[in-house]
Amino acid sequence: MLAEIETYPRVREWDVDIHTEDLDKMYLQFKEFLGSLPDDKDQIFLVAELNRKVVGFLGIHRKGKRMKHVGVVGVTARSDYWRKGFGTRLPKAGIECARREGFIRLEADTLAKNKAMRRIAEKLGFKLEGIRRMRVKMNKEYEDEALLALVLM
After folding, report:
1. Which of 32, 93, 109, 136 is deepest in the core (most CB within 10 A)?
2. CA distance 139 to 149
3. What pLDDT shows up at residue 83?
């Protein structure tokens, strides 16, 4: 179900880091990732379910050695569940997990034009720290990327 969500065209529209568009390859990537997860202390991974159906997921991973206190947040939800609260509830739960795991700062990058994701992040306390001009190339166009951050102290 995770691979299906990640390969939905409407989800990929906003994803700045597409690993593959092939469902079978995406499934294998998730299988490998989930297999290594129990031993990886630098990752938080949450899944949102509704009626035994996965509707979204969130990952937080630590940065390098000098930035172990920093977590990079990514959140994805099935497009048919957008505007139903999962985009807010998942990051809210992720923030609480990050606090318990000792993260001091969380960062979330999104396309600058992704107003819905920016609104969600700001509602949860993230602050816009900057716009990276022409950061992402999508469909032969260069897009700006917004950097949002939340300090947990």
Report:
1. 109
2. 27
3. 85
Reply yes or no on whether the pLDDT at 70 is more than 90.
yes
Give Cα separations from 48 to 53, 136, 137 (angstroms): 8, 28, 30
d(CA 152, CA 56): 24
Interatomic CA distance for residues 128 and 47, integer angstroms: 26
Q: Write the single-letter amino acid at 129.
A: E
Taking only the tens place, the pLDDT of each residue in 4-55 is: 877 766 666 666 666 667 888 888 988 888 899 888 889 999 999 988 999 9
Domain 2-151 architecture: 3-Layer(aba) Sandwich (3.40)
Q: Which of 59, 16, 43, 57 is nearest to 146 (CA)?
A: 16
How far apart are alpha carbons 75 and 57 in whole angstroms? Answer: 6
Residue among 47, 119, 110, 50 nearest 74 (CA): 110
Tell how many helices (H) and how many strands (E) occur in the chain.
5, 6
Residue-wise pLDDT tens digits, 138-147: 889 999 999 9
d(CA 84, CA 14): 18
